[in-house]
Write a structure and sequence with these properties.
By secondary structure, the chain is an all-alpha fold. Helices cover 61% and strands 0% of the residues. The chain contains 13 helices and no strands. The chain is extended, with a radius of gyration of 35 Å. The protein starts with 10 loop residues before the first helix and ends with a helix. The protein binds protoporphyrin IX containing FE. Protoporphyrin IX containing FE (HEM) binds next to α6, α8, α9 and α12.
């Protein structure tokens, strides 16, 4: 087009870098024509793009924003389902495929999941409680009263933490009971059963160390009784078997180590606090990660052998394979 509009044929000269008078005219003409062309193109392009975007708003799944987030189609095919799960940072924590019978509530009672859910609630409410609580003999009980009576929502916060703690202990026992009833501790899940036993111990330790923190009579005497039992620990307690032979006394045995002294006092409160808020939650979290990873590596939740009752045989099945089966 620039060629046609240039009667002097000076196109090459101007492009060559030494334009004469004619060359300059050619350049200006070409720029003007180019701009005209661009404007013309924009006149057609902009409405086309706008139309496309308005269409996109009608169907958000076609917008670029949507496709950049959800990179795979959501058709109900096994491949798309697997891709959807595997390419999402949150979903990929779950297996792409599971045995439907294994995840029935009637099989798992959902107790492992509920235990984990309670642990999350405890962590969340526990961190909020830390904003108001000081682990010192002067402050601890006062802080609890302050939470109960003055802090907005303090009472519900404290009770959520306390109730979730009780429930977690109950849930973890029920979970263990279900694993036992379904024989899920057997090969290849022996290792995970052992991780589970450690998780049970750490759940109980979390409960026990939390008990002293309000510094009330209940907690004080519970921890007095509990730690007195440590006197009788074999080898490590001064009253336990072989303890005295190993030189254990009330001032160097395991009980002394737990309390940070020979009586339940300020040091015991501080030690309980640190174990309760830092040490045990970290260890329990790591064990939970291993526990969940092992469930996946052991072939998913054990589950009953997939069976179909005679009564169910004629019923239409749900799920992707139902139509094609
Ligand atoms: C903080 C404590 C615990 C948490 C959060 C936890 C969580 C879970 C979850 C979510 C599952 C998947 C199946 C289900 O929900 O039932 C599971 C499976 C399992 N858990 Fe735990 N668990 C805990 C403690 C224990 C304890 C105390 C034991 C046994 C001593 C145990 C042994 C197992 C075993 C063997 C499996 C595999 C079961 C199967 O494949 O059917 N867990 N756990």
């Amino acid at each position: 087009m620039a060629e046609e509009n240039n009667p002097n044929g000076s196109n090459g000269g101007s492009a060559g870098g030494s334009p004469g008078k004619n060359g300059k005219v050619g350049l200006v003409e070409r720029v003007t024509t180019g701009v005209k062309d661009d404007i013309q193109a924009l006149k057609t392009d902009i409405p086309a793009k706008a139309k496309e975007q308005i269409e996109g708003l009608k169907d958000p799944t076609k917008t670029q924003v949507y496709t950049s987030i959800f990179r795979h189609k959501h058709d109900d095919t096994p491949r798309n389902r697997a891709l959807g799960v595997l390419s999402n940072v949150f979903l990929h924590l779950h297996p792409a495929k599971i045995n439907r019978d294994a995840v029935r509530y009637s099989y798992t009672w959902g107790m492992g999941g509920i235990t984990f859910y309670l642990f999350i609630i405890l962590t969340y409410t526990g961190v909020l409680l830390m904003f108001y609580y000081h682990p010192s003999k002067v402050q601890a009980f006062r802080d609890v009263l302050y939470l109960e009576h003055d802090v907005p929502f303090g009472k519900i916060l404290r009770n959520m933490h306390r109730w979730a703690a009780h429930l977690m202990v109950i849930a973890v026992w029920l979970h263990m009971f279900r694993v036992f009833l379904t024989g899920s501790y057997k090969k290849p899940r022996e290792f995970n059963w052992n991780i589970g036993v450690l998780l049970l111990v750490f759940t109980l330790l979390l409960s026990f160390t939390g008990y002293l923190l309000p510094d009330d009579q209940l907690g004080f005497w519970a921890v007095t009784v509990g730690t007195n039992m440590a006197r009788a620990t074999p080898l490590l307690g001064h009253e336990g078997p072989f303890g005295s032979m190993l030189g254990m006394t009330p001032y160097n045995d395991v009980r002394f180590g737990l309390l940070g002294g020979s009586i339940v006092d300020a040091n015991a409160l501080l030690r309980s606090y640190i174990w309760h808020c830092i040490g045990i939650p970290i260890v329990a979290s790591v064990l939970m990660i291993v526990h969940f990873w092992r469930v996946r590596k052991d072939g998913g939740i054990s589950g009953p052998a997939p069976v179909m009752l005679e009564a169910e045989a004629d019923k239409p099945r749900r799920g992707p394979k139902a139509a094609g089966e």
